Amino acid sequence: MTIPENETVAELSSADGDVGWAEGPSFRQGDGDYLTVMLLAAGLARIRDDRRRMDAGEYLTRTSAEQGLLPVPWRSGMTRLWWRFHTAGHVPPRSDLALFELCRTPFSEWPIGLRLSVADLEQSLLDDDELTPLAEQAARLSVRDVEAELVENHVFRELMLVAEMNAKDEEDVQAHYCELRRLLIDKPVLTEAQVRRLVSRFPKRGSNGQPIVQRFIQAAYTRRAVQGPVAIGVCDGCGNPMQRGVGDCGTAGCSGNRTSYNIEAVGGYYVQHRATRRFFHDPGLVEARVLDRLADVQAEGTISVEPWPGLDAYDIRVSFLSGSDVAEVWGADAKDQSSPGLLGLGFTWRTDPPCDRRFLVLPEHRADQPGYVADLTTELQGRVSGVSVVSEDAFVARVIAKAREVAER
After folding, report:
1. CA 88 to chain centroid
2. CA spacing 20 to 30 A to 282: which of 3, 254, 292, 308?
């Protein structure tokens, strides 16, 4: 992202109106600084997206950075921040450029003490000119029209269309949904041969004669035209493509190494674009790991595991079996997010399908982060009740122990 160098200073006294809060977050007294962070992040995301559209030659018809005005969320966040500085007796940032620099600084080093979680205080909104994972998370939570969220919703809609149009009944829809959702986790790179098999597997065509699954692939992946043998550098841990000369793939919690994925390309191959990787593949890795580990337990006949029940009401539903009867049902929602405060702020639980116990499952690299679980648990208090925060290892261990207990009754 290139931060503009000659933008006008925001009007700190302007009325900003509705900034488009997303449904779900549960705000309470003391959350004011999180609201400010979310607004600033949403503004930075809008500036980035405006710049990308301009670079692509698109004319921006709405009020935008191109017209000399910074986005409403940015101005709202700056106004809120101005009052925080003023109330604390500190000189606020005098310009947008000064605030851009402040956004590159960890919150713990800001002149005022922001009311954020301990883990979040060590983070910033910008890493050089790129949004940090916390900023991406905050932007998605705060506004509905950030470009990445639109792309995410587009991919989800196309996935659902493939699942529904190729199904005979609701059970088929659920099975197709799980298959395609797992595809986005397991296959960050697709060959033409794999795409042809998908078209054969999901043959339903749209009104233009194109297979609907092809539209889904086009929404989630970018096609790279090439002919003949190709060696693609990928991570042997998570499968993400890696840039030449880069030592790690950059996926949070992944310790994989670069390896070569060799294919014989017939016209090209497909690579997940940034939004698919960020919103489906990377956060789905913890879901896939837990599901794979529970599959071994399910093979013993003591549990039944449903991935993404109710078309993704939550991630995993485990039924503990006592003979032919279901003794108890657990639900789990796996989350891999950089900010425990923002995760707690935006976390909700859908009650259908029902379960007896509810778990918020964290990948080990988040659970092991000092202060993360404590901060998240604190944020959840008073927002969502009856949810236990556990690591993926701890959740699997609890399932195994419960399955044995039920089997021995």
Report:
1. 34
2. 3
To the question of pTM greater than 0.85 for the whole model, the response is: no
Helix 212-220 vs helix 192-201: crossing angle, to nearest 10: 140
pLDDT averaged per 10 residues, the chain (length 409) = 40 34 46 83 84 66 50 83 85 89 94 88 90 86 54 86 95 96 96 94 91 94 91 90 76 87 90 87 95 92 94 95 91 94 89 95 94 91 90 97 89
Q: Report whether 357 contacts 319 (CB < 8 A).
A: no
Are 269 and 222 in contact by the 8 Å Cβ rule? The answer is: no
List, as one string, the DSSP characters of 251-279: -TT----EEEEEEEEEEEEEEE-HHHIII
Please state, in angstroms and rounded to a whole number, the distance separating the CA atoms of residues 193 and 201. Answer: 12
Nearest to 136 by CA among 283, 9, 253: 283
The length of the chain is 409
Q: 206: which 2 tokens? A: 């749209």
